[in-house]
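At this stage, I wrote out one protein's amino acid sequence and its backbone structure tokens, and that material follows here:
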Amino acid sequence: MRQLSLLFACCFALLCSCTSSTAPATAPEDATKQPHIVFVTGDEEYRSEESMPMLARMVERELGATTEVLFALDSNGIVNPNVIDNIAGLEALGKADMMVLFTRWRKLPDEQAKYILDFAESGKPMVGFRTATHAFMYKDDSLRQHLNNDWPTAVFGQQWITHHGHFDDGHDPLTSVALVENTHSPILNGVQPFDAYSWLYHVDGGDWKINPKTSPLLLGTSLRSKHEEGGRLDQFPKTNPVAWTNDYKGARVFFTTLGHPFDWQNDNMRRLTLNGIAWALGREADIPADGFNPAIIGSYSPNNSGFGEKFKQGMRPKEF
């Protein structure tokens, strides 16, 4: 397993002025209070600006939480996930009880990134989706390059490596999802096998090992694989974990590499996520035997994934 480098530790100290919490990994100190959850969006591919507000409304109903959803904004206050250096309102993390992160290769200025980094060091619970394996990208900044790979590996369990291929994105599911055998986590209450539109991320196997602190919950099998077509399954096997738990400095972390906008149209994806958020908050006893109610509040008709101008344009945060 790759070890975090001395540079990582030194640079993190420069960027983070907080002191790490020693809270136990079993649960937050007060699991009965009304939690305040901040959802941080900012990815230019998977429409997190659409899925996370939908999920936040469900979290408020099912868990009695208060929520805030933060967005990448342009200079006019319009949601634009192609803006990689601005996520408005990150100071809200200073008083949050949980951070939900769905960003992709952001290059945030120090004064913004610090809120995310400080929260991760606080010992409070976190949830991450798909591209949080590559939440940041600082190509030419030696003091911050550890955030590209080492940081997500430590916090969420793995960095970005490769995937098995898009193949007519959004037309048909590309990953068959199954429960890990003999796993009895309450996160899986009511969750049934399903097909996901997310193409499978490689996180474990070949030259790569997932963070050993993780505990897998779901396995995905690629239904069509560029690595199979290229004869590389010895390095990138067709079956890999797609959901797991992690322990980061005493904090409970739930993570899934799923998150294509069409995945959220499946009840099992929404139920899995609600259960995972409850577990991370230390409220596993509140998870019903058949899982939380996955019914969507209002409607959810997301744009397909993709780059460029494929997001819903001209919208302000309150319109989501």
Summary: Confidence is low (pLDDT under 50) at residues 1-24.
